[in-house]
Amino acid sequence: MTRNKYILFTFRLVVGGMFIWAGVSKIIDPLGFAQNIANYRVFPEGISFFLALALPWIEVICGVFLILGIFRSASALLLSGFLAVFLVLSIVTILRGIDIDCGCFGSLSGKVDYKLILMDSVLLFFSLNIYFSRKAVRIKF
Amino acid sequence: MALKKLLQQIVLILFLSLIIGLGINFSLIKKYFQGDFQFGFISLEKYDSITFITLGEAEGLFSEGEALFIDSRPKEAFQTGHILGAVNIPFEEYKEEEALDMIFLPPERIVVVYCDGSECNSSLELAKVLHQKGLIDIKIFFGGWIEWTREGLPVSPENDPQ
Lengths: 141, 162
Known about the structure:
Chain A is mostly helical. Chain A has helices spanning 5-27, 30-39, 45-68, 72-95, 114-132.
């Protein structure tokens, strides 16, 4: 875990930026995202629908907060939780042999594959780093 | 104390997101409770050429012989068995652009798109592509291959519907 404030700030920009992008791409097409969640065949239809309405806003708000340094630990913890769930879902989806779009970036999403797992893992590492370094020197706007 | 503060902040973020997300999409929530998305999450106002049909309606169109049945399942599944006379556009095996390029149908042609059954989604995705291609009468048979074979309706190859 790094405590270098510049590296941590870069992590915040990367994780925050990715989630803002991911969130906005889903907000503009909530039904498309609801279908993406339903395609995983994990949640019932109703849960997929309401998740699709709320989840992108959590991503955007946490992303903005993370970059601005507002509720930094809470945002980093929430995003780490998301990334951990995405990671498990992706692995389970590949193991079940379901060939679907990840739904991570709305209509720009790629397939659920090992590249996605790698990206999720890197972002999770960055995000956990931000959370566990909460006592380090902060860069705040 | 720090943990309590952290939890409060998490609850606040979740609450804020929920309020905004549900508030902005209020009209969609209304449609959801009216049963508009029972076959899939698709805006039938945006995709106004798409309708969902039952097994009975699919059978009727099959008998009339005017509609083209399109099977959106993978090639292997299609080769194993499909609705008699259906053509295969294995949606999952193609990127959207390629799927678009291989379709040459007159806009007024009635098409019935199907996949395995209510669990699969490729028929819905393919129907969206057909809508973009300008087709004006696209029907999704959501019961798909499972319902069709369960009723013992005509398939190809004839002797091995599975």
